[in-house]
Amino acid sequence: xxMKKGLLSGFLALAVTSSLxxxxxxxxxxxxxxxxxxxxxxxxRGYDWGPAVYKVILHTGVDIQADTLTNDTFKVLAERSYPxxxxxxxxxxxxxxxxxxxxxxxxxxxxxxxxxxxPAGQYITMEMKVHPDSVSASPFTFDLSTFxxxxxxxxxxxxxxxxxxxxxxxxxxxxxxxxxxxxxxIEQGVDKFDTTGKFNYKDAKYGQxxxxxxxxxxxxxxxxxxxxxxxxxxxxxxxxxxxxxxxKVTSLAGESIQKYFGEAAVLVPQTPTFWMNDGTGQYTKxxxxxxxxALTALIKQYVKDHAAAIDTDRIYIGGCSNGGFMTxxxxxxxxxxxxxxxxxAEAYTDSWLTKQDINxxxxxxxxxxxxxxxxxxxxxxxxTATYKRLIAAGAKNxxxxxxxxxxxxxxxxxxxxxxxAAYEYNGHWSWIPVLNNNISKDYNGKPVKIxxxxxxxxxxxxxxxx
Length: 466
Hints:
By secondary structure, the protein is of the alpha/beta class. The chain folds into two domains: 40-187, Immunoglobulin-like, CATH 2.60.40.2180; 190-462, Alpha/Beta hydrolase fold, catalytic domain (Rossmann fold, 3-Layer(aba) Sandwich), CATH 3.40.50. Helices cover 14% and strands 35% of the residues. It contains eight helices and 26 strands. It has helices spanning 240-245, 255-261, 292-305, 322-333, 355-361, 383-392, 431-435, 457-462; strands spanning 40-47, 50-65, 74-85, 92-101, 103-109, 120-128, 140-143, 148-151, 153-160, 164-165, 171-172, 184-187, 194-203, 207-216, 224-230, 265-270, 310-320, 340-344, 366-371, 398-403, 406-407, 414-416, 419-422, 424-425, 449-450, 453-454. The strands form eight sheets. It has an eight-stranded mixed beta sheet with strand order 13-14-16-15-17-18-19-20. It has a five-stranded mixed beta sheet with strand order 5-6-2-1-12, with no helix packed on it. Helix 3 packs across helix 4 (322-333). The longest helix is centred in the middle third of the chain and has 14 residues, at 292-305. Residues 1-35 have low confidence and may be disordered.
């Protein structure tokens, strides 16, 4: 998780290729067997550092008494395997790791893992501890051969360590999993999105370009703003779920952000490689991208296809790292199209911007975010330099939140080893507070205000119109 993260925004994404299985034999007092379990679910959701498996839901097939459950009734084992490559010899091999997951809570629930207050039930949910450093909880690995996140082959084993009782008083003592039991996967937050989007574009210079995308459209009849997110290089590929969960992008469709927009559509395009690809497979050295025309066409086609639903005066674009670069690239390629932009840890070298480019950008509302601890992008030569040039050019609605470090702001994660200070993330990951909407101060350390009222980044953005 600490390798090549910069320009590669997230290092994790959702795994649905897991092989998780369950088998149940119930030994009753009269020696009869109860039905086998119907299903087993692994629950994954996005965190600030990427996705993690945090719940398992066992359908036992028999009514279990709640008061016989304890946190040590089960033990959960996670095994991960994934393709690896020796970067010196180019030899490929299979990597693997395994560990015991720490169980925080065990309780009866419904089939989705929501806690039940009933005295008995067939679903047992186990909540497991997660932490930014808990690699075993991740359904993903970082592929050094492609510099992108890839699914691991994931297998969980549930081992029953203590007997339970059903409502008839029978002992239920063998709920240990097996590889041939049916299972389901739950992807929290992703279910709001359509992840099947595909867009084909014939570029005059680069030929056929195939983009994929995820999208969210609120179910109402009114015109809605559109929020666009452009992923980092680590989320490139052909599965938009990676772009949704490599970072906590699903939060854009969550209530805490949606409330500012009165419900907004969300579009998350995905490149098969990386946005900064200059057409040779290398990172651009001029600011040019082979995907500029294709991405422009995708966005405009999506808006056209949803003309009755999208307010074209309220289209917002942002992204992290590689996606932050592409945000500026899109503003330059489409003057006056976007109502506002929110790039974070953006990798657009300021020297690539001409005076004419600065004049193009200065009238577009932009809120930059970056951290001084960023060791991937030299912010002094990117966002900081560009922000200062925009202000000098007379920009009236350009802001810049710049902080020393990227720290956990939830209060849940600490440095550890006896140090109770907030956990410190990679300094490049300045999009974490953006996607949590924990951004409110300008470069001078003072709150950004609208009509005298201090506002957060998302509240500011929702007020911008063409």
